[in-house]
Design a protein that fits this description.
81 residues; mainly beta; 5-stranded antiparallel β-sheet
Length: 81
């Protein structure tokens, strides 16, 4: 219920999410001083693919990420965009 309610509130307000994660993936965005850090946490036992709208750099391994990122079971990614 709350997910549907919040989606409608955000849509009505014209606010769009940075990413739309699949079920079981948590997204947390922190912004400040011209920087954006995105935390992606897979809370499931399944591999998940998340579409990334803007090129980013993984802060965990330094790789460039563009288009999408794959998270393994219980995996985490930290991206700077």
């Amino acid at each position: 219920f709350y997910d549907a309610l919040m989606k409608e509130v955000l849509r009505t307000a014209g606010i769009t999410a940075f990413v739309s994660p699949p079920e079981g993936v948590e997204v947390c965005v922190r912004e400040g001083e011209g920087k954006r850090i995105v935390f992606l946490i897979n809370h499931t036992e399944e591999k998940k693919t998340i579409k990334i709208p803007h090129p980013a750099t993984s802060l965990l391994d330094g790789h460039k990420v563009q288009g999408e990122i794959r998270l393994g079971a219980f995996d985490v990614a930290v991206l700077k965009s």
